[in-house]
């Protein structure tokens, strides 16, 4: 099982609690990030995001008795007054599935990774997406075969063996229900780039139905 430590970003871009929102905003633009851990000697104090800064600009706007707007001054607004304190975190040993679930359920862009009260890294939606793309072999030359099987492990193993017997590596697999029959499933096999026709022939000879094959 893959853990956060294997995927997280360790080249951290951080900010101090006494820095200003203007500095935070400029750093985000310069480094193309949307959130900054707020640290003091590697101890995580909070996190400041693009959304926090936008909200600060909106809610700190003031009006006079004459309804004249008084502009905010981000150069005088301290990060510590607008950051999210005690943000959700994970440890380096947290498994990837749990981290992804926390990000999804809380609708956040990333999670600081903390060990012994020290910031070790950060794992973001981009890191998760990169992992998914890598696991699916999308950026590498590959082929795909979609096979209709029953829901037994035996059938999955049998199709996998046919593919392996053709000298191919299975880069990734996926499974989804078959809408027309709840006793069956669609198995997706992403394999080394190849001509799929000979494999399709052997899979169908073994009694399975190939729904699609992409060289």
From TrEMBL:
Keywords: CBS domain. InterPro entries: CBS_dom, CBS_dom_sf, Diverse_CBS-Domain. Coiled coil: none annotated. The keyword Transmembrane does not apply. PROSITE patterns: CBS. Residues 8-66, 83-143 form the CBS domain. Pfam families: CBS. It comes from the Bacteria. The keyword Aminoacyl-tRNA synthetase does not apply. PANTHER family: CBS DOMAIN-CONTAINING PROTEIN, CBS DOMAIN-CONTAINING PROTEIN CBSX3, MITOCHONDRIAL. This is CBS domain-containing protein. It comes from Candidatus Nitrohelix vancouverensis. The lineage of its organism: Bacteria, Pseudomonadati, Nitrospinota/Tectimicrobiota group, Nitrospinota, Nitrospinia.
